[in-house]
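AIM24 family protein, Xanthomonas perforans. Tokens?
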Amino acid sequence: TLLRLNGEAIFVNGNDVLAFESGVEHKITMMRKVAGMLSGGLFNVRLSGHGIVAITSHYEPLTLPVTAASGPVFTDPNATVAWSGTLSPELVTDVSIGTLFGRGSGESLQMRFAGEGWVVVQPYEEASFQAKG
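Tokens:
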């Protein structure tokens, strides 16, 4: 997917940045809103400036609008690809006694987006794999 930046900023999951032009500045950021839930946090890349950005996704991505009027949007962190720089997501948990005993109804860890902007998700959950040694 190609996106043209005209002075605005976007955040992209670190695994999903493919390329960007020289007029685009980048900075690696890390979310640490839920201590102990993720080893080291979620890494993202903030891209801003002027130019074209290429991002990857598994299958056809879906862009979800986020507005104050409609309320927050919740996404699976492993399926979240990118979001507008106007949003500051939070990691939230939905841990209950049911999730501890295998009776949960959905994802225990979610990203919450509130305000005005958009979020890109993919119909696929990216997973990190560790080598066994």
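The chain has one domain: 2-121.
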